[in-house]
Design goal:
It is a single chain. It is globular, with a radius of gyration of 19 Å. A hairpin with a 3-residue loop joins strand 15 (320-329) and strand 16 (333-342). By secondary structure, the chain is α/β, with parallel strands linked by helices. Strands 2, 5, 6, 7, 8, 17 and 18 form a 7-stranded mixed β-sheet that branches. The chain has 9 helices and 18 strands. It has one domain (1-354): Thiolase/Chalcone synthase (Peroxisomal Thiolase, Chain A, domain 1).
């Protein structure tokens, strides 16, 4: 689609939460030898990850982040008009998790609430939807929640994915702001490559059955069922270098910004090798491209706000910034945004001890 824009809506608050349980990828576990683990860490940059216990869902992490954010900012909860929950690991098939979070967060029954099933691009898509709602005359504030317990979707005994993912939740508050400037968004999709990152079993095309739940052993020693996620790493890398640089150049042109005028480039935290290739291709200075994956792993749509909270918190609190955000992956789906922030509130990272 064409680059779209809107004015007068700003991100005013941001918070994130992670499970307290920390996994060190260099401590041998399961099928991974020390040599296997070192190879993964060296290539991906993912040294530690946060993993939620079985009793904790993505909504619990989002609830903690949102509750802290609203309390820290002293927000009257009756002024939240819309709640958007972006996740591919919801609590239930039905009802929508967003509606349950409306109740848990003590928002009014006049709050519109809905789920969005998107992964790595989900924060950028969510920001656009939240901004579009907030631009409406009758809407005061919109709460965007991104949450994933991605470790539950992948087999810990899969050599391709078992050490990559972490769990996290975030809360982003948007409202009308004079002087917020113009925000720019670009969105793209390619379903022809949808099987590059996918879970075959457990949906309505291939319902759960003894066969989809049966674990199988593959030639490389990986063990997983059809209800675990799979990833075509080479295919995803090819997609990244083919599609994402052009999208970033396009939104820079549309926004009238140069790389030198962007204060920080916050990209989906999937793999440091891939992101560094992207950074060099675009000639982005290393100091403008923060990473959080070394501590938290790939947290899907939460990775961009989690990086902002943990790596850019002081900068975002103290001054005006122009940011370029880009999310890319499962779908395949990718999107980029250029926006300005003005001394926004950033809560300290919350840890859920369950």
């Amino acid at each position: 689609m064409a680059v779209v824009s809107l004015e007068g809506v700003g991100v005013v608050g941001l918070a994130a939460a992670v499970p307290k349980n920390r996994i060190d990828n260099l401590v041998p576990a399961g099928i991974f030898t020390e040599e296997d683990a070192r190879a993964v860490v060296d290539k991906t940059g993912i040294r530690t990850r946060r993993v939620a216990p079985a009793s904790v869902c993505a909504s619990d992490l989002c609830h903690l982040a949102a509750d802290r954010l609203l309390n820290d900012m002293g927000i009257d909860r009756s002024t939240i008009d819309v709640l958007i929950f972006v996740s591919q690991t919801p609590d239930y098939r039905m009802p929508a998790t967003a509606v349950l979070l409306q109740h848990r967060l003590r928002l009014t029954r006049a709050t519109g609430a809905f789920d969005v099933n998107l992964g790595c691009s989900g924060f950028v898509y969510g920001l656009w939807m939240a901004s579009s709602f907030c631009a409406q005359p009758a809407v005061r504030r919109v709460l965007l929640l991104n949450g994933e317990t991605r470790t539950k979707a992948y087999s810990p005994r899969d050599k391709a994915t078992g050490l990559l993912f972490g769990d996290a939740g975030s809360a982003t508050l948007l409202e009308k702001c004079e002087g917020a400037g113009t925000s720019f968004f670009s969105f793209n999709s390619d379903g022809s490559r949808g099987d590059f990152i996918s879970i075959k079993g457990g949906g309505y095309r291939h319902p759960s059955s003894p066969e989809t739940l049966r674990e199988k052993t593959y030639e490389n020693g990986s063990v997983r069922s059809d209800e675990h996620g799979v990833m075509n790493g080479p295919g995803v890398f090819e997609f990244l270098i083919e599609e994402v640089p052009g999208d970033i150049r396009r939104i820079l042109t549309a926004s009238g910004a140069t790389i030198g005028e962007i204060d920080a480039f916050v990209f989906h935290q999937a793999n440091k090798f891939m992101n560094e290739h992207l950074r060099r291709k675009l000639r982005i200075p290393a100091e403008k491209m923060p990473y959080s994956l070394h501590e938290y792993g790939n947290t899907s749509s939460v990775s961009i706000p989690l990086t902002m909270v943990t790596q850019l918190g002081t900068m975002l609190r103290e001054r005006r910034n122009r940011l370029l955000l880009s999310g890319f992956g499962v779908g395949l789906s990718w999107g980029s945004a250029v926006l300005s922030t003005e001394r926004m509130h950033v809560s300290e990272l919350a840890e859920l001890d369950a």
